[in-house]
Amino acid sequence: MLFSNAALAFGLVSLAFAHPLEKRQNALPPVNSATDVSVLQLALYLENLELNLYTGGFVNFTDAEYTAAGFPPGFRDNVGVIADHEKTHAQTISTILTNAGESPVPPCSFKFNYTDPVSFVNLANMITSNGIGAYLGGGALLTDNPELLTAASSILTVEARHDAYLRTGLGASPFPTAFDTAVTSVFAYNIAQMFIVSCPRQLPIIILPKLTFVSPPPPPNLQPPVPAGTPLQFTFDPSTFFVQVDPNAPLYIGLVNLVTNVIFVETTSCGIGCVTAPVPEGAAGVAFAVLTTFSGGLNENQLTEYGALAGPAEVVIS
Asked: How many angstroms separate the CA atoms of 233 and 265, rounded?
């Protein structure tokens, strides 16, 4: 045994001289283009939102309140862990931008409309789904920077784990769909505006007229899914549209969902600034609804660039 240990030690020393150990550095990925900067700034904007959200979910409720609401032991502590993760994400993205000579977008002031642990977790599921969609959409813009794409992807997978944990706490499926929904930077940014009170600095991303999802509310435990054909009601202010629309022209909801991209559904008027549209067959998980005059033929990028009258509104189907 002594001989074999000595031989092993000699072998390791010989190997070390033959192949010197690489010095690994915790180097953050580079920023190579203005596109990289814009993707990072939006990611930071959304990470700051999530940090504020989860910090509130940890501070504003006690262990006993989470337990009384039906969540498992330790749920509040894990909400705190998620907040720590969001803080780390925000700090890391800020450092990457600073290293590139860019000024990181500062945090905004936020307001969230939850009143108890259940409404907090339902809201967190929606906001985190928007963040997941933004990372998916942003990843397509980082293909020329594989190091940054890898770093962003490593955040995306953690965000997905957060959402799965939240959904499990609600008694819902942690993985309701085979695919998540990617959203454009414009749509992700506009979803975030729902929670903004004020910002020291906004991003140079267009803010679209508002589309409000009215009903139905998410199903208890997010299951069973909202059935196909169920009317979804939305409200909007026609006077805010960027283009003039004939009051008698048909309107459609473009539903961005999963990898089918956009499903177009004709609406029925329920009054001035009010429409309903049925849940389309096959829609699931979280979808993003956009009001449009187009009946089809647009992908999400085209809907973003010139097809949206108002929106998006986030709709939880399952």
From this structure: 13
